What we know:
The structure is a single chain. This protein has one domain (6-222): 3-Layer(aba) Sandwich (Beta-carbonic Anhydrase, Chain A). The chain contains ten helices and five strands. It has helices spanning 6-11, 14-29, 38-44, 65-68, 88-100, 115-121, 130-137, 152-174, 176-183, 213-222; strands at residues 53-57, 76-80, 105-111, 188-194, 201-203. The protein has a five-stranded mixed beta sheet with strand order 2-1-3-4-5, with helices on both faces. Helix 6 (115-121) packs across helix 7, helix 8 crosses helix 9 (176-183) and helix 8 (152-174) runs antiparallel to helix 10. Zinc ion (ZN) binds at residues 58, 60, 83, 111, 114-116. Zinc ion binds next to helix 6.
Amino acid sequence: MRTLTKDLQQEITPEKAVELLMEGNRRFVNNLRINRNLLQQVNETTQSQHPFAVIISCMDSRTSAELIFDQGLGDIFSIRIAGNVINEDILGSAEFACKVVGAKVIMVLGHTSCGAITGAIGNVELGHLHFVTNKIKRCIPKKPIKTSDSNYNELVSTVTEDNVVLGISDLRTRSPILAELELSQQIKIVGGVYDLSTGVVSFMDLPKVSLNKQSNLEYAVQN
Ligand SMILES: [Zn+2]
């Protein structure tokens, strides 16, 4: 795969950008990673970058976006934070990536066995950690979830998926720039969950963006 130039980036539609991520993850899972000359890519990207995607994923050491989507230098913006939550800094970063640099897709990516998710469920407290867990708690059911619950793992995966939906809702409702780019079909905003045990990214089927921004927020919170 060639290092992305401005022209190559512009040829990629938002739909194609999603396909490129899916294909990259398939190569990763099948151990068919592209043999890139990274030093050559260093030279080719020295003056500029034209990434096609923004991945907002967890800081977990097992979920490196460039690796699990088999991408090289200059291919993706990788925004990583515990629990793949959205804050103002991340909104600004995603706005820059799409509006200024021309990325075509934003993916909010959760993962299985996420310590931020189980920490939020278990009300873990430490220093500034509540800034992360409070964002996740918005999608945790009122009824307490206990590790002794027979369906604990199922509940954790539901919260993991809902947290991705909530992240997407945050992007759409809190950033008029991203919402407009999506509505005018210049970008897609998608979600997924990475399985730590298989390496597979499951792309989530999400409701289309709505002109009624409030309804998106309600969807996320209710689900
Ligand atoms: Zn995590």
